Amino acid sequence: MALSKNSQRTIAVGIFGALIVLMLLLIIVPVQLTHVNYDDQMDKKMRQLQQYSKILSEKDNLKQQLAHLKHEISNNKAVFISKNESIAFAQLNDYVTRIVKKNRANLLSIRMQSPKNNRQSMPYHQISVVIDMKSKIVSLQKILYQLEMSHPLLTIDNLKISTQVNQAKQTPLLLVRFDVNTFWKMTETTN
Question: Are 85 and 124 spatial neighbours (Cβ–Cβ below 8 Å)?
């Protein structure tokens, strides 16, 4: 079965057109896929760049906070200053008692705790007090926040909380025990 010249020409043009479409697909599809992969990689790099920029912006804030803390330490606002350890304990005792009473908690006891490692040759000495109190949860949160945020070198350790139910009001009271640690610096005595 012989095809006419017109049919052969049509088939040849069709095959040629199919080859051109196939060649275009072989070129365009990989280029398009590479472009999509490139876009994904660029988006990933942009997210990383944003994260790094955020970290760098926080760096300046942290440097300012560090400089502020160093300034407070150099001005001795961050430590209690006294002639001896007993007066430093009394200052810390008064400081903690004011905050506890201001937040309407019931202070059961406050005791001095001997420092674990206190070298006399160091300019700053650690002091600690143990606090026992009864409080509601809201008051406890305020007390802990005020203690740690109002004094840069003051920390809270060994926090123990237990509950006590008041039979008359059925409002739970918290029995709380914690250590408050900070530093004091001996003032120069002139004779």
Answer: no
Give CA angle at 152 (150, 154), nearest 5°.
Answer: 85
CB 80 within 8 A of CB 182: yes
**Amino acid, single-letter form, for residue 91:** Q
Q: How far apart are CA 93 and CA 159, in angstroms?
A: 17
- CA 60: distance to chain centroid? 16
* Distance separating alpha carbons of residues 139 and 101, to the nearest angstrom: 10
Per-residue model confidence as pLDDT tens digits over 131-156: 999 999 899 999 999 988 877 778 89
Distances from the Cα of 148 to the Cαs of 6, 16, 144, 153, in angstroms?
95, 81, 6, 8
pTM of the full predicted structure?
A: 0.54
Coil, strand or helix at 106: strand
Both structure tokens of 111 = 């005791």
Q: How does pLDDT run across 36-89, given as a tens digit for each residue?
A: 777 788 889 999 999 988 888 888 888 888 888 777 666 555 567 677 778 888
Q: Which CATH number fits domain 80-186: 3.30.70.60, 3.30.390.50, 2.60.40.1120, 3.40.50.2300?
A: 3.30.70.60
**Confidence class for position 5, pLDDT limits 50, 70, 90:** confident
- Give, in order, the Cα–Cα distances in Å from 30 to each of 47, 127, 128: 26, 71, 70
- If one counts every other C-beta atom within 10 angstroms of the C-beta of residue 129, the result is 20
